[in-house]
Amino acid sequence: MDDLVIAGKTYASRLLVGTGKYKDFQQTLEAVETSGAEIITVAIRRTNIGQNAGEPNLLDVLSPSKYTLLPNTAGCYTVDDAVRTLRLARELLDGHSLVKLEVLGDPKTLFPNVVETLKAAEILIKEDFQVMVYTSDDPILAKQLEDLGCVAIMPLASLIGSGMGILNPWNLQIIIDNAKVPVIVDAGVGTASDATIAMELGCDGVLMNTAIAAAQNPVLMASAMRKAVESGREAFLAGRMAKKLYSASPSSPVEGIISQAKTIKRLD
Length: 268
Prior knowledge:
Elements (H helix, E strand, L loop, with lengths): L3 E3 L2 E3 L3 E4 L6 H11 L3 E5 L24 E5 L6 H14 L5 E4 L12 H13 L3 E6 L3 H10 L3 E4 L13 H10 L5 E3 L5 H10 L3 E4 L1 H4 L4 H21 L21 H8 L1
Parallel strand pairs: 3-4, 3-10, 4-5, 6-7, 7-8, 9-10
Antiparallel strand pairs: 1-2
């Protein structure tokens, strides 16, 4: 299968996974390994990667030499908070520049504040961050973020942690059709079929956390998501048959079929 390219780097897996909400770091490790993901997101405000001395460190379990870490700004509601958080991440990770920006609008819906997101993206890009950006499924905004210099656009499928799946495939399709950078569905995926649908639409990848971590068997769900993303991408590349409303087409050829009339004549 073809590779995913983000900011000039190539990845074999099109599934990106988060590291939060697991019962412990061991379960996190097992789920990540099973998913086959090469890019893993880390919420700097919620996960210790060295900023809290004496606490368990995620990097002791998931090595930066094996995975591409994607620091994110989960829990940030202002430009200042988001920018400050990613500056800290770059310092902790020895100059790491690939980041995921999200600036939230309110704690109830976790819907993105698109005005603050645009402002933060502009600042970070000027500081040479490679910004993958969480946003709404607004095609105009997605294009504006791309034009600013974001290396990947990450529209929501539905609200973060909702598991509601893709609620507006038409908007996603417009974003995909007009983007020149990778489009990665972020937020709202609940089960494997949601991931497959995203990939069949032509998305370049899917990022998820809760769908795996909150499953009754997270490791098994990680396996399902890996297969779902792969099958969805293959179906997209294969090119599905055209839909034909009110038009049936037999799956077996009709030429050469012995008609009832011919059969009766032979019997006579």
